[in-house]
C-alpha cells in the first residue's frame, strides 16, 4: 500500500489530508468529509425523514441486515424481482429526495482528488449498519456506466471493509474506515469484489450506535 501526503493542509481542519492508494485506481481519503460534516449530517437526516430507511428483500428472499434509502434521480432497490435502479421509492411511490448540493459537491471533490475529474453522480445509496450488520462480498454491477467511478462516504461507527480482487475467491485486503473517510474506486478497479465485516458494538459521539455509508454513483 502506497501512502502520499498533500502538501497543502486544509485551511479549515489544519490537518494534512492523507490519501492511501489501495488499488491502481482506488483511494481512501482519510477524514476528507470532516470539514463539511455539520452540513452533511442535517442533510442526511432530512433525506431519511422523507424516504425512511428500510430492510429490503434480496432476490433470494432474505431481508438485508443493512437498512437502505436513496437520494438523487435514481435509487438502488432490491426485491423478489432482482436488484435494479428506480426513479421512485417503492414504499412511498414518490420520487427519491433530491441529492443535496453539499453531497454532490463533496462526491465530486473526492472523485477529482482520485483522478476522476468529471464525475456526475445521479444516485446516492444510503446504507445504515447497526452493530452486527454486514455486507457480504459482492461486485457493484447494476449501474449502466462502468466508466464512472463510485465514491463512498463513511459516517459513525468504524467498519472493516474488504477490498478484494476480480474473482470471489481472490484474497482481499482489510481496510478500516472511520467517520469522515471517503473511498473512490473506478477504472480498472471498478468491478473488484468488496464487502463489510459485521460492525462491532460501540457508540459514536455524533451518530450513536450506527454506521452510515453513502455511495455516489452514475447509475443511469
Ligand atoms: C467497491 N457498500 O452499497 S462502500 C454497496 O460500506 C457497498 O456500505 C459498502 O458495497 C458500505 O454496494 C462499501 C466502499 C467500497 C470500498 C471498497 C471497494 C466499495 C468498493 C472496492 C471495490 C469496489
Ligand atoms: Fe458495493
Note the overall shape.
globular
Which percent bin holds the helix content?
10-25%
Number of strands: 14
Determine the structural class based on helices, strands and strand pairing: mainly beta
Q: Give the spatial strand order of the biggest sheet.
A: 1-2-3-12-9-14-7-4
How would you characterize this protein structure?
This protein is mainly beta. It has a single domain, classed as Alpha-ketoglutarate-dependent dioxygenase AlkB-like (Jelly Rolls, Sandwich). Helices cover 12% and strands 33% of the residues. The chain has two helices and 14 strands, in the order E-E-E-H-E-E-E-H-E-E-E-E-E-E-E-E. The strands form three sheets. It has an eight-stranded antiparallel β-sheet with strand order 1-2-3-12-9-14-7-4, covered by helices on one side. A hairpin with a 2-residue loop joins strand 2 and strand 3. The protein starts with a strand and ends with a strand. About 4% of the residues have low confidence. Bound molecules: N-(carboxycarbonyl)-S-(naphthalen-2-ylmethyl)-L-cysteine (MD3) and fe (iii) ion. The site of N-(carboxycarbonyl)-S-(naphthalen-2-ylmethyl)-L-cysteine has 15 residues, from strand 7, strand 10, strand 12, strand 13 and strand 14. Its cofactor is Fe(2+). This is DNA oxidative demethylase AlkB.
Amino acid at each position: 500500500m502506497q501512502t502520499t501526503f498533500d502538501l497543502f493542509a486544509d485551511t479549515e481542519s489544519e490537518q494534512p489530508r492523507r490519501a492511501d492508494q489501495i488499488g491502481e485506481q482506488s483511494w481512501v481519503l482519510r477524514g476528507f468529509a470532516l470539514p463539511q460534516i455539520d452540513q452533511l449530517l442535517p442533510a442526511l437526516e432530512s433525506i431519511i425523514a422523507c424516504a425512511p430507511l428500510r430492510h429490503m428483500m434480496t432476490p433470494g428472499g432474505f431481508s438485508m441486515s443493512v437498512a437502505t434509502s436513496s437520494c438523487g434521480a435514481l435509487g438502488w432497490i432490491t426485491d423478489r424481482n432482482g436488484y435494479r435502479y428506480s426513479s421512485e421509492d417503492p414504499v412511498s411511490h414518490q420520487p427519491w429526495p433530491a441529492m443535496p448540493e453539499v453531497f454532490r459537491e463533496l462526491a465530486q471533490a473526492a472523485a477529482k482528488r482520485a483522478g476522476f475529474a468529471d464525475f456526475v453522480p445521479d444516485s446516492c445509496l444510503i446504507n445504515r449498519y447497526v452493530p452486527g450488520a454486514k455486507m457480504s462480498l459482492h461486485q457493484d454491477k447494476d449501474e449502466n456506466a462502468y466508466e464512472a467511478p463510485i465514491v463512498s462516504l463513511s459516517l459513525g461507527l468504524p467498519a472493516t471493509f474488504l477490498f478484494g480482487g476480480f474473482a470471489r475467491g481472490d484474497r482481499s485486503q482489510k481496510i478500516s474506515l472511520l467517520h469522515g473517510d471517503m473511498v473512490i474506486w473506478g477504472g480498472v478497479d471498478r468491478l473488484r469484489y468488496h464487502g463489510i465485516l459485521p460492525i462491532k458494538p460501540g457508540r459514536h459521539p455524533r451518530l450513536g450506535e450506527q454506521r452510515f455509508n453513502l455511495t455516489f454513483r452514475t447509475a443511469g
